Amino acid sequence: MNTEVKPYTVVDMCENLDDETIGIIEKRLIGKHPNTYTLTKGLAEQIVMCKESGLLIAIVRPSIVCAAYQEPFLGWIDNTNGFTFRTNKFIHAIIVVTLHFLPAFIVDLILRVQGCKPMYPKKL
To answer: Could you tell me which residue ranges the Thioester reductase (TE) domain spans (predicted)?
Structure first.
């Protein structure tokens, strides 16, 4: 995902400008992105692509990681903040959930599989 601003420009700004100044130029930095989360994801991807130097790279971006299904145990979460804690009873009452939620162990498995050698490596 490309951004209108260069990643190292943003890093330099964050290291050298105060919070008030960054707050003033925030909307301009965000550009066409809906929020700072998508902007920073795009910036990080650009840095990875610049530094990759022939390495096989996989970027895993789950939208929301929720409580574990079985490992280390059913319903495990590492904190009581956010979506999982507040809606745990609600989600368990629904038979089919069509939102983009991934249990923590699925994300772990995806990350492990990404470390395997791909059948068809392709340069981006």
So the answer is: 18-85
